[in-house]
Design a protein that fits this description.
The complex is a heterodimer of chains A (192) and B (223).
Chain A lengths: L6 H7 L6 H20 L6 H15 L10 H20 L22 H5 L3 H13 L3 H8 L3 H25 L20
Chain B lengths: L5 H8 L8 H8 L1 H11 L14 H8 L5 H25 L7 H10 L1 E7 L6 E7 L4 E6 L10 E8 L2 E8 L7 E6 L9 E7 L13 E4 L8
Antiparallel strand pairs in B: 1-2, 1-8, 2-3, 3-6, 4-5, 4-7, 7-8
The chains are: A mainly alpha (192), B alpha+beta (223).
């Protein structure tokens, strides 16, 4: 049985084996689509933007350089630029608006969920864009067309709320085993 | 560099920024920032949000519509190479004596056309495109009358009153003819061309008046 190939191998092989694109799409489109949704792209426009991103990935796969980062980082960077471009062109003239309800919670039942639950939709999107999609605060300011100072204020408030919620939840949560690791201190990396 | 904000630390900790990004490079070398990023990311669920994307087949249709640049470049080089090969070898590939591509090009672009009109022949004409630079000529016709069995057409370069054999041929189906002919002296002194009907090839001089005849007017004067 063949071993599944990693993203870097697939991406590097795209110029010779365009079929690898289907696998990259299956792995990354759900997450990049969610990023676009979180950023504020209306659900109806996501297929088009996603297509544009994968066309660009396909056309420029030869430029991918593994020394400059992972394939996921490279593809997400393209998606970030496309998302910013889209929202620049389609942003309503008045102000940033909250497009619908936040996405469903990730499948994670741990106490860390408390942190995100404490946030309002806009704050939650802010931290999700940073942590799950690698948007810097400057890029988020560009994305939403608001001053950088405003993003800093929002993010400061959001992270304070999260810390407070996680601390409170951790204090309320009985520890079944005093020798086990604290659940609030679990550190895990996002996986594609 | 100033220490990044909490949000930027989370962005750097996402693992989705290039390693050359100043933010990522700072975090990689700053112990305090790494510790802060560690605490911040501990508050986040591990699984990223996902949505159900459109089917790959929808995207693939569009992806397939864009040929890769390298493919276009390769195709352009291949086309150029093919043109060169055909340009140089093409006339040779047609069979029979033929000029090299550049010589053929010289005939086709720089040559002069003369029509050999019917003199003894009942109808038809032969076109002769000749080039004194390369010494080659292309004769074409599609109206040559069929020949009786055992006879041939013979083309002669006429130098005043002297005839020099140039080519022997029989017309194809429908009276068609297309062939390359060489003048050993690059048409120097050739004043006219004539086609006779001969009972046999290889005669030293024409045995009958020309079926077709045309004046070349002499080669261009050297400047």
């Amino acid at each position: 049985m063949a071993h599944p190939r990693d993203d870097e191998t697939l991406l590097a092989a795209v110029p010779r084996e365009p079929d690898g694109m289907a696998e990259l799409y299956a792995r990354w489109a759900p997450r990049l689509g969610a990023m676009m949704r979180t950023a504020g792209i209306p659900a109806a426009d996501i297929p088009d933007v996603l297509q544009g991103v994968f066309v660009e990935i396909w056309r420029h796969a030869g430029r991918f350089d593994a020394r400059r980062g992972s394939a996921g980082a490279w593809m997400t960077q393209i998606a970030r630029h496309r998302t910013i471009d889209f929202l620049r062109r389609h942003r309503p003239a008045d102000e940033w608006r909250d497009e619908g309800a936040p996405l469903p919670d990730p499948d994670d039942r741990l106490v860390v969920q408390a942190g995100l639950r404490a946030l309002d939709p806009r704050e939650r999107r802010l931290v999700e864009l940073a942590y799950y999609s690698g948007f810097s605060q400057r890029e988020i300011a560009q994305l939403w067309g608001v001053p950088l100072g405003t993003i800093k204020t929002w993010s400061r408030r959001a992270l304070q709320k999260m810390r407070r919620a996680v601390t409170d939840e951790g204090a309320d949560d009985p520890q079944p085993d005093s020798h086990g690791p604290s659940r609030t201190n679990r550190r895990r990396r996002p996986s594609p | 560099m100033k220490h990044p904000s909490d949000l930027d630390l989370m962005a750097a900790a996402s693992g989705l920024r290039p390693t050359t990004d100043p933010l990522v490079r700072h975090v990689a070398t700053c112990h305090a920032c790494r510790a802060r990023a560690h605490d911040l990311t501990a508050m986040m669920p591990s699984a990223a949000p996902v949505i159900e994307p459109p089917r790959w087949s929808h995207v693939a249709d569009r992806v397939g519509a864009f040929p890769r640049r390298t493919t276009i470049r390769r195709a352009a080089w291949a086309a150029l190479a093919l043109m060169l090969v055909l340009g140089v070898w093409g006339p040779k590939l047609a069979g029979g004596p033929a000029p090299w591509g550049p010589q053929a090009l010289s005939v086709l672009t720089m040559g002069r056309t003369v029509t050999l009109r019917a003199v003894q022949a009942p109808h038809g004409a032969v076109h002769l495109r000749w080039d004194p630079v390369s010494g080659w000529a292309l004769i074409t016709s599609n109206t040559l009358p069929p020949l009786p069995a055992g006879t041939v057409y013979e083309l002669w370069w006429i130098h005043g009153t002297q005839h020099v054999r140039a080519a022997i041929f029989r017309p194809g189906p429908g009276g068609r003819l297309s062939m390359w002919v060489r003048s050993q002296r690059n048409f120097r002194g050739v004043t006219a061309a004539g086609i006779t009907r001969e009972p046999a090839p290889g005669l030293a001089a024409p045995t009958a008046p020309p079926q077709y005849y045309g004046s070349l007017g002499g080669p261009p004067a050297k400047s």
